[in-house]
Write a structure and sequence with these properties.
Blueprint (H helix, E strand, L loop, with lengths): L7 H18 L7 H14 L12 H15 L4 H9 L10 H8 L1 H19 L8 H8 L3 H17 L6 H21 L3 H15 L1 H13 L1 H21 L4 E7 L2 H11 L10 E7 L6 H15 L1 E2 L5 E2 L12 E7 L3 E9 H9 L1 H6 L6 H17 L4 H10 L5 E5 L5 E5 L4 H8 L1 H5 L1 E6 L2 E3 L11 E5 L16 H32 L6 H10 L5 H9 L5 H12 L21 H7 L6 E3 L9 E3 L11 E5 L5 E5 L5 H7 L4 E6 L7 E10 L4 H11 L4 E10 L2 E10 L2 H11 L5 E7 L1
Parallel strand pairs: 2-6, 13-15
Antiparallel strand pairs: 1-2, 3-5, 4-5, 5-6, 7-8, 9-10, 9-11, 12-16, 14-15, 14-16, 17-19, 17-20, 18-19
């Protein structure tokens, strides 16, 4: 049975895609999984839980296509396959995680929850410019299978949005594919997916270039195929004579790769010679893999002159994602350079399906290094403070770079990106060693801390207990681990300075009997030109700004802006200066507030900044000297002062009618400093239909955090309900509205 969310064409397509997906997944599903899954999906369809994404695609059909693609591209396990299909049904009121765990197992439930978190964040904050994008990436890093699933899902989405009318969304998706998903796919060894993502990204972001290169390649196809056949024929004969069993084929490089070469070399297609590569795939037992690959290498280089500078030996030292292959470039017929890749059948499967192939071939090298990389990703996400784009830059910094291989004095090998310094090497061994590094001995010679390393160098690190990281170190470090740890140490030092500054500020304010209101202080700090609260208090702690002078400025800033002059005047003497522009900008809906008599219309008013009243608060009006009525809460910190000094300016005010306007409200949250707590809080807020998350400012110290969350709400009732939900989050100790 299919509900109204399906068009006639989709109804016809559904059984076809379902049977295709089940057939692809049969090798990993349990005996009764297919039947139970069909029943579950049918009920989900009936209940209307498979709706459309923001591109207008039916989510069930999209997931069926994605799971079929995943079965072919990465050989997923049972949990990944089922989680991808079940996740759209996961919700507190329909199918909570507890039910999924009971029916399908703990592993499936864990992946469903991970995918659900990613989806809830991504639906609301798809742009890489979003502040919540860090939380999205952090959710990625909890289980590597979530990363793989989302990469494949993104590839299926990219395939489906060609010529979609929403060009802005298509270009946004293309940018994310290029700068996030393709690097992740590359790092996990999913080279085919990485290449297609980059090609589609280029196609959607610069269709003219993509079409031109594709057209030029197509025109040269016959000549290219003829050249490949002429190159392969004698090589095939020689390899067979050597007793090898193999397949040999040629493949054209991806369009995005060709475009990168055109830009880098400042050439056109006619002068890019390595447009294709020859791949030799040898069938041989595991114990003879290296020997047979080197035998093929010897045969080919005897026939064609190799270029030593283009030699890449990923067999003796595999890449950290498990990739193994010999890459050589030889001088072929017609004076053309040809790249030849030599690998075994097992190596080719690892190269094509990346990490998934590790699960099939147990014991293959690389898993420990991959785990280390995942931990490094978590470090970056947990400690970075410079925004989403810098996060992505750090994550991809080690991915595409060429590698250098450096040895310790004991002969241990370390892999680093090209351009790595002695300091990068020190941090790769241990964080403490990096923090205390003052230089090193490279091949027996003393070198400075910023000395760039070369493959084959033997490095011994020199340290000093008095050494501490400085911001200058970020200028010559290239590894994400080193840069992340340096920032972390610098941030910790700044936080200590900020704690001292806060204590000084609060103590002196108390001595002056000056009450410090948090929201007012936040506005004061922003007006003073500081990006964060920590920067402000750190400057105080370092005595870069004078605490007494700052307190004087804050006291002046915190004064009610309405309290101007002491002259005794009657409220009726104030003239209401209401222009059309002012009323449009400063006045809420006529039906929201009744000021004074209900017969008085068109009064110009503002909501007071000192207490930020929202619909439902007990309020009063205060007529300022410029004729604008300032709306205050009855429990405003300045209310008693205003009533005492200016009773003649107070005008009765009450809320009226219904309200569709969103008012800003600040919630103060305190609790245990846990990595996922911000994600949980933002997730709850984003699920509220009539509440918008506007800003989050978090400070942490000694295992505790204190944060101010600004939301847009339409009533005190909605705000009270939200506060009640936030209190239920594990680790949250105190929640209250801040004024």
């Amino acid at each position: 049975m299919v509900n109204q969310y399906f068009t006639p064409n989709e109804r016809a397509l559904l059984p076809v895609l379902y049977h295709k997906a089940v057939k692809a997944l049969m090798p990993v599903l349990h005996v009764d999984d297919a039947k139970r899954l069909r029943e579950l999906l049918t009920q989900g369809i009936i209940d209307g839980h498979y709706v459309r994404n923001h591109f207008g695609m039916n989510m069930l059909l999209h997931r069926l296509e994605t799971v079929t693609l995943m079965a072919d591209a990465v050989s997923p396990d049972r949990s990944m396959s089922l989680a991808l299909m079940i996740e759209p049904l996961c919700s507190d009121d329909y199918m909570p995680a507890e039910i999924i765990e009971k029916e399908w197992g703990e592993d499936v439930a864990r992946l469903v929850v991970g995918l659900n978190k990613v989806g809830s964040l991504y639906d609301r904050t798809a742009s890489v410019e979003s502040d919540n994008f860090r939380n999205l990436l952090l959710t990625f890093a909890q289980d590597i299978r979530v990363i793989i699933t989302m990469i494949v899902e993104r590839l299926q989405l990219m395939r489906a949005i060609n010529h979609h009318p929403d060009e802005a969304s298509v270009k946004k998706a293309a940018a994310e594919a290029r700068y996030l998903y393709a690097p992740l796919a590359h790092r996990l060894g999913l080279y085919a997916i990485k290449g297609e993502l980059e090609d589609l990204s280029l196609k959607y972001s610069n269709r003219e270039v993509f079409t031109r290169i594709a057209h030029d390649l197509n025109e040269r196809k016959d000549a290219r195929d003829a050249y490949i056949a002429a190159f392969i024929a004698p090589v095939k004969e020689k390899l067979e004579a050597a007793g090898l069993k193999f397949d040999i084929k040629g493949r054209t490089k991806s369009i995005s790769s060709i475009w990168n070469k055109i830009q880098k070399q400042h050439n056109d297609l006619d002068h890019i010679y390595d447009l294709f590569a020859i791949r030799v795939i040898i069938d041989t037992p595991r114990e003879r893999e290296k020997a047979d690959c080197w035998l093929a290498y010897s045969v080919i280089t005897d026939m064609y002159r190799p270029n030593p500078a283009r030699m890449k030996d990923w067999i003796s030292i595999p890449k950290s994602n498990g990739y193994e292959s010999l890459h050589i470039t030889v001088h072929g017929p017609q004076e053309r350079w040809v790249e030849v890749q030599i690998r075994t059948r097992r190596m080719d499967l690892v190269a094509e399906k990346g990490l998934a192939a590790h699960w099939r071939y147990k014991g293959i090298k690389g898993e420990n290094e991959l785990d280390q990389w995942m931990n490094n990703v978590r470090d970056i996400l947990e400690t970075a403070d410079s925004g989403p784009m810098e996060l992505m830059k750090n994550m991809s910094m080690d991915i595409y770079a060429d590698e250098v291989f450096v040895f310790t004095p004991k002969g241990d090998l370390h892999r680093l990106p090209k351009g790595a310094s002695i300091l990068d090497f020190a941090f790769s061994i241990h964080t403490k060693l990096g923090c205390q590094c003052i230089g090193g001995r490279v091949n027996g010679k003393n070198r400075k801390i910023n000395h760039k390393l070369q493959s084959g160098d033997t490095v011994e690190i020199n340290t000093s207990a008095q050494q501490n990281p400085t911001r200058d170190w970020l200028q010559f470090t290239v590894t994400s681990k080193a840069r992340t740890k340096i920032r972390q140490v610098l941030n910790e030092a700044q936080n200590r300075q900020a704690a001292l500054g806060r204590e000084t500020f609060m103590r002196r304010a108390k001595n002056r009997k000056l009450e410090v209101d948090e929201p007012t202080l936040m506005r004061f700090i922003k007006k003073a030109g500081f990006k964060t609260v920590t920067d402000f208090f750190a400057s105080l702690g370092a005595e870069e700004i004078d605490a007494n002078r700052v307190l004087e400025q804050y006291a002046e800033f915190a004064k009610p802006d309405e309290a101007v002059g002491d002259e005794k005047r009657s409220a009726e003497d104030f003239v209401m200066n209401v222009s059309d522009d002012e009323q449009h900008q400063e006045t809420a809906s006529k039906d929201v507030l009744i000021i004074g008599s209900s017969q008085i219309k068109g009064m110009n008013y503002k909501l007071a900044r000192c207490c930020n009243p929202i619909y439902g608060d007990d309020v009063f009006g205060f007529i300022s000297s410029d004729g604008v009525v300032k709306i205050h809460c009855n429990n405003c910190p300045n209310a008693s002062h205003i009533r005492e000094r200016y009773p003649y300016r107070i005008i009765p005010t009450r809320w009226s009618g219904s309200n569709d306007t969103a008012f800003p409200a600040t919630i103060m949250v305190m609790g245990i400093d846990d990595i996922g707590i911000v994600t949980n809080i933002s997730s709850i807020i984003n699920k509220e239909r009539d509440i918008q998350l506007r800003n989050i400012a978090i400070d942490s110290n000694d295992g505790l955090f204190r944060g101010n969350i600004v939301v847009g709400v339409n009533s005190t009732t909605a705000l009270t309900a939200l506060i009640r939900k936030i209190k239920t989050i594990k680790g949250v100790k105190h929640v209250e509205r801040s004024k």
